[in-house]
Amino acid sequence: MLIDFIPHSRPTLGPEESKAASAVVESGHIAEGELVQKFEDVFARKMDTRHAVATSSGTAALHLTLLAMGIGSDDEVIMPSYVCTALLNAVRYVEAVPVLAEIDPLTYNIDPGDVKKRLTMRTKAIIVPHMFGLAADLDKLLALNVPLIEDCAQSVGGNLANKPLGTFGDACIFSFYATKVITCGEGGMVICNSSKLADRIKDLKAYDQKDRYETRFNYKMTDIQAAIGLAQLEKLNAFIQQRRTIAQKYFRAFQSLGLRLPTDCPAHIYYRFVVGLDTESQPLISKLRQKGIGCARPIYVPLHHCLKLSGFPITDNAWRTSLSIPIYPSLSDQDVQRVIEAFVGA
User: Would you name the residues annotated as active-site residues?
Assistant: First the structure.
């Protein structure tokens, strides 16, 4: 690997996170405690919602949300095929039936029209990822009158009509993995306005010291993670502004190349800058990697491939022809220029 290789993803961490994590270690209380509670309270205020429950991962957040909503064996849950396997795993954890839907070819978000075709009497929820930092078509999805679980793993801090994403559905889950918009290393969060739902999730995420036994989980966040999360949350607005600044440089550089570029709108936070080609993207990904630029297919593999299903031509085309180029706050101006020059010259 080249010494000056620019990775596809990289967390943006600084002395604030180091100081916060060190303070927790020095305190001797490193498990879930007061800092997790503080992170939940601050996050809820930031998202303009009543409740926030911290978890060990975004997958854990979704698993608990499905359980707390009473979704289980033989219930159907609709989700896009063009998304990471975490969603599929969580649905299978509760023994529900995953029903896959197509995407909008321009936004890569779940297609409400295709969702409508797949509704049945057994449909209990729709999982709605806001892909790559852009809001899905929530008006049309809400009109289907099915409980929505928003997935803001890629869109924390995004908004629609000046309302935070994650506050439109019945609940929303977040991921704070190392490469997400903000990170705790690992970690997740559920937000909702229902006290009943939040209390149930809190009960299920910790198994010990309970008067009544039932199967529960060890899905707690640690104070070390929460300390880092609080420091990251302070920087969220600046992170998003930097992502938007880099995106505008890419738009100016690529607008004459005849590519499918991301939707350019003020509310987009550009977690990913996804470019669509007229040909297979893998050869270009390999060529850019040889030039020291880390690019990737934005989704490793569509879910219908995992389930050995066919009949998703829009998703298949997006998977074959799209690539994601580096866009994160710690990219220097020189890094951005290198990405542009490599891409334009490829």
Answer: 180
Q: Is 7 a domain residue?
A: no
Residues 92 and 186 in one domain: yes
Task: Indicate the residue among 203, 234, 265 that finishes a domain.
Answer: 234
| 83 & 215 share domain | yes
Helices and strands in the chain, H and E counts: 13, 11
Q: Are residues 294 and 223 in the same domain?
A: no
Task: Summarize the confidence of residues 110-123 as an average pLDDT.
Answer: 98
At position 152, the amino acid (one-letter code) is: C
Please state at what angle helix 85-93 crosses helix 58-68, rounded to 10 degrees.
40
Range of the domain at 332: 236-345
Question: Is 1's pLDDT higher than 70?
Answer: no
- What is the C-alpha separation between 53 and 61, in angstroms, rounded? 8
Give the span between the Cα atoms of 252 and 238, in whole angstroms. 22
Q: How far apart are CA 79 and CA 332, in angstroms?
A: 36
Which uninterrupted H or E stretch holds 98? strand 97-101
- Do 186 and 62 belong together in one domain? yes
Residue 282 burial by CB count (10 A; 0-12/13-18/19+): exposed, middle or buried? middle
Q: Same domain, yes or no, for 201 and 89?
A: yes
Report the CATH number that the domain containing residue 268 is assigned in CATH.
3.90.1150.10
pLDDT band at 346 (very low <50, low <70, confident <90, very high): confident
- pLDDT band at residue 28 under the 50/70/90 scheme: very high
Cα(173)–Cα(222) distance, integer angstroms? 18
Q: Does 9 map to a domain?
A: no
pLDDT the model gives residue 194? 98
pLDDT given for residue 3 in this prediction: 58
- Tens digit of each residue's pLDDT (9 = 90 or more) over 234-287: 999 999 999 999 999 999 999 999 999 999 999 999 999 999 999 999 999 999
Determine how β-strand 171-175 pairs with β-strand 163-164: unpaired
Phi-psi region of 252 (alpha: psi -120 to 50; beta: other; left: phi over 0): alpha
pTM exceeding 0.90: yes
Q: Are residues 45 and 154 in the same domain?
A: yes
- Averaged pLDDT score across all residues of the chain: 97
CA atoms 36, 41, 44, 49: torsion sign: positive
